[in-house]
User: What shape does this take?
Amino acid sequence: MKNFKVLFIFILSVAFISCKENATSKINSSNLEKAKERDATLSLGAPIVEFDKTEYDFGELTEGEIAEGVFKITNKGKVDLIITSAKATCGCTVPEWPKEPIAPGASADLKFTFNSRGRVGKQSKSITLQTNSEKVTELIRIKGTVVKKS
Assistant: This one.
């Protein structure tokens, strides 16, 4: 039994040492360079999103009219701002966001349309942006009143 324990420990030791040597030989130097570049970018901080306004009041519409508007987005950070998606709370509001990165100090427009058909009364809709900013999600609102068509 004692010989079996010694043999088992020896086999485990050999397996551990051989795995350790194989792991270091599998490191890809180009991946190390990419990681260094990523870390250098991260040290600059995340983009900072600033809107010209966070709420757009379209006023009063007659049912069936379409409201259009624009939010200006400025990147106040030191790295590119990337907006991966923009989703509205309902299908009546359709956002159109910049697909290209927004450079530090640069601005871009987020356009939207609101279709008032079948939406009589006070309206409040949100657009949620998914970004690479520190907050990750940014929220803007659209509001107004839709009056019944006579």
